């Protein structure tokens, strides 16, 4: 791997910056093994640390893996919190198409 790695194009920013609607950003990545896609869901799970103290561990999922794991997660009683921002993925896709209505989808 060289110093010049491929990067996803930066999202197109509106001139008037809207207040942050979503908690998760492009810095948040899916925790599933060998995935690393942008996370769109964060699940807090009641668990215990090494000292046996109750803590809330957080798992991040990309849209694909969250959709895959959502039924199993929903059945767990140890869920502390769920942040589901998959609609951001739809919004960004619509915004991208809107910004480039005659594009080929690969702008
Ligand atoms: Zn993933």
Radius of gyration: 17 Å
Low-confidence stretches: none
The SSE string, one letter per element, is EEHEH
Order of strands side by side in the largest beta sheet? 2-1-3
Structural class: alpha+beta
Largest sheet entry: 3 strands, antiparallel
Termini gap:
26 Å
Identify the bound ligands: zinc ion
What level of helicity do the residues show? 10-25%
| Average predicted local confidence, pLDDT | 85
Let me know the number of strands: 3
- Rough outline: elongated
**Number of DSSP helical runs:** 2
Please state roughly what percent of the residues sit in beta strands, choosing from under 5%, 5-15%, 15-25%, 25-35%, 35-45% or over 45%.
15-25%
How is this structure best described in words?
With 107 residues, the chain is α+β, with helices and mostly antiparallel strands. It has a domain at 39-96. Helices cover 24% and strands 23% of the residues. It contains two helices and three strands, in the order ββαβα. It has helices spanning 63-74, 86-99; strands spanning 39-48, 54-62, 79-84. A three-stranded antiparallel beta sheet has the order 2-1-3. Bound molecules: zinc ion. Zinc ion (ZN) binds next to helix 1.
């Amino acid at each position: 791997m060289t110093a010049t790695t491929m990067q996803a194009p930066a999202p197109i920013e509106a001139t008037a910056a809207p207040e942050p609607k979503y908690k998760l950003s492009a810095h948040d990545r899916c925790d599933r093994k060998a995935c690393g896609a942008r996370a769109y869901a964060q699940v807090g799970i009641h668990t215990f640390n090494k000292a046996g103290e109750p803590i809330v561990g957080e798992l991040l999922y990309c849209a694909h893996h969250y959709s895959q794991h959502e039924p199993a997660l929903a059945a767990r009683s140890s869920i502390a919190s769920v942040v589901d921002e998959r609609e951001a993925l739809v919004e960004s896709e619509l915004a991208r198409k809107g910004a480039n209505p005659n594009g080929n989808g690969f702008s």
